[in-house]
Specification:
By secondary structure, the chain is of the alpha/beta class. Helices cover 20% and strands 18% of the residues. It has one domain. The chain is built from four helices and eight strands.
Length: 114
């Protein structure tokens, strides 16, 4: 896992007892041609950028994001269903960007209270 994190440019991290990766700061996974999020993330203190990839299923998303969650321009299958199942709105303090078809829905969603 540490080699994967190094290749992704993630340096300020802790691996929890549960095997999740907590990151102090932002995570940049944008524009890498990813078909999945490569590691299971825990708490991200900054923003989580994973836009412009080929991800269709929301696996390994962070358990908590201290700022924004950028996930637009991915071919998400049933995005509303997946994000509701994960309680994604409760995990993210800031904005969530998906594809344009969910823009109105996210603008109306309540903000997290963390």
């Amino acid at each position: 896992m540490e080699e994967t994190l190094k290749k992704l440019g993630i340096i300020d991290y802790t691996i929890t007892e549960d095997g999740l990766v907590d990151v102090d700061g932002d995570v940049y996974l944008s524009c890498r041609g990813l078909q999945e999020i490569p590691v299971a993330f825990g708490k991200i203190t900054g923003s989580f950028y994973c836009d412009n990839n080929e991800i269709s299923v929301l696996n390994n998303v962070p358990t908590e994001v201290g700022r924004d969650f950028w996930f637009h321009n991915n071919p998400i299958e049933n995005p509303r269903e997946q994000s509701e199942k994960l309680s994604l709105r409760e995990r993210v303090v800031g904005a969530i960007t998906y594809s344009l078809n969910l823009e109105e829905w996210w603008n109306e969603a309540p903000k997290a209270t963390k």
